[in-house]
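ok so I'm stuck.
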Amino acid sequence: MPAFRGSMNKQRFLNLVKGSSIARRVLLVLLAAVVLSNTVVIFSTISTLEQQLLDRKQQQLSAEAERLNLQFHAYIGELLRDVAFLSHTPAVGGLLESRAVDADSSSSKHWRDHLQQAFLQMLAAKPMSVQIRLIDASGQEVVRVDRYGSGGQARVVADADLQNKAHRDYVQAGLALPENVVWLSDIGLNRENREIMQPPHAVIRAVTPVYDGHGQRRGMIVVNHRLEEMFSRIGEAAQDELAHYIVRSDGDYLLHPDRSKTFRFEYGERSDQALGDGED
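replied:
not stuck anymore, here's the structure
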């Protein structure tokens, strides 16, 4: 009996050891499964959070782009309305028609004085307008007011300082326009006497033709709008972590955090054509 009891105890001990070993294996398997499951959950949670952050940032960028797009279109819409309004000012048609008869007549002087005052009033009402001109069909400036007087004051440009602009693309475009159509130039730096003005400033030109009562094209109205203030507003409105760019279709920068990269095409150079070139 003692020998049998000892044999039974030994077998029970072996069974317990064997059971314990299996239990440990099962426990390790379960522990590994739990760790793996938690890892998968954590990874999935992180991936979900990253995607949510990306989606949120994309929504913010889209909303910001749409806001700036609406702001720019409102700005340009005002410019289009201004130039269209000026083209129908009675003094415009009166001056062009009287000049066709006698440029030095009292009638021409009368209409010229009226038009100069109308242009000055428009400049006073439109701070972003820097130059308003009536140009005849030969490309010659007839009346011009601008903000290039002493201290940036509006002025009427003397006849002796009026220029022929027939070589400029906006004049050639204006002479090809049908009635009641407004043409917008590319954005560029303003030039006087074929030289970039100093300090340089960006402008966009709105041009619309002037026709007489017989359907004959007599000239055009050209309004220059200065864009620095609008560009500054875009930069000021930018969120801290965002940089704003305005890029021409050919890749040249009009607006860039580094101002030295802007308008290089006006100097016969090219700016970086890919956003981020040379950036940290």
